[in-house]
Amino acid sequence: MTLQEAPDIGEVVLHHTADAYSIGIEPFFSLSWERWPDLHLGGLTVNLTPTKHTFFLVIAALLVFLTMWIAGRLLERQRAHERAPSGFANAIEAMVLFVRNDMAIANIGADGAKYAPYIMTLFFFILYANLLGLIPHGATATGNVAVTGALAITAFFVIEISGLIKLGPQGYLRTIFPRVPGLSGAGAVAMSIIMAPIEVASKFVKPFALCVRLFGNMTAGHFVILSLVGIVFLFGHLPGWNWGIGGLAALTVLGIMLIEIFVAFLQAYVFALLTAVFIGLMQHEH
Amino acid sequence: MRSTIAFLILASEESQGGFASPFEVNFGLFFWTWVIFILLFFVLKKFAWPFILRATEEREQTIAKQLEEAGKLNAESKAALEEHKALLAGAKEEAHSLINEAKAVGQREREQLLEKARDEQLQMIDRAKREIDAERERAVNELRREAVDLSLAAAAKLMQQRLDSKADRKIVEDYIDSLGKDRS
Q1: What is the pLDDT of residue B162?
Q2: CA B78/CA B70 separation, integer angstroms
């Protein structure tokens, strides 16, 4: 037990939160596969090999589907017997209704019901992906920039296309070249053109913020937990302190884990809510 | 030793290759995220949301329908009220105009009657005057004829006697006087 054996915690943390071409419950079971050849699309190198995070996204999607499907069937059965919704189905119904009414419809407005399925899918998909990262041997797919980036790009298109549909081509152009209040004539045109880059930037900043917020929050939590666990490996060999350090680190990690559960819900909520808010902003742009 | 084992467990992914850190962007994962998300979206839309939301949506539709109906009924009753008000106002106006017309007719009738009465009166007076005049004329004429007759008779009588102008005149005048006495 010398200091030379002390592990490089930073390396471990980065590796643990990084994606991989393997899944497994070490040390009992492990499955790894070869990386497929890269594809070159223009200047972009894309490698479509499914990764650990792909696997966990599929698991999250399957679990969301199973949850909703079972809840739907239970509700139908309860309705068929003219019984009030109860138990698991009722809890899921309440959550779904919360997302639909208080997140989607409340922020989008009259067309909220149309966009509700998207917001609901977004919320539960992100929530499940977040939570899967908290179970032992799980991986947080939403702690991957590519995943949050892809979701944010989807959100970008949904937001912009919803605006295009609602406002028409002319109204949509007004979101890029805004009508400046209190000005007319050449001044208004000039201001409008000056504002255009800012407006365009704001269109991209919103989804970018969505992407980075979710990624950052999910990754940071894991960094904290792994760093705290790392303390055990760094200082656990000190005679007389090892139990104290171990116990304290475990307690702190437990606390952070509880916060992480909350963060998993919160970030799913924030992502879905902000997407709804941005759709709503586009709908009511004048 | 313990720490080494644990570290090996933690770092075991390293041996299987892959990514160095979560900050590496894997563009292939964009594709998979989209595929999974879009599939999940459509599957949920078809197989899950309708069953979970059915009760709520039905209730919403019912409420919307009821609201719409209530709105329609409200509008209808407002319209009916307006109509009744208009009718009432019309009836009042009509009554007023009827009374006014009746008054006007009565007034005209009275004036006509008065006019007629006055006319008749005037005609009657006129006729009476005319009759009086005619009567008087007839009386005067008769008197005159009688006077002439009498004169002639007196003249005849005188002719039988002497024609003395002064005395004759006296005779005639006396005669006429006597006639006047007889008459009155």
Answers
A1: 60
A2: 12
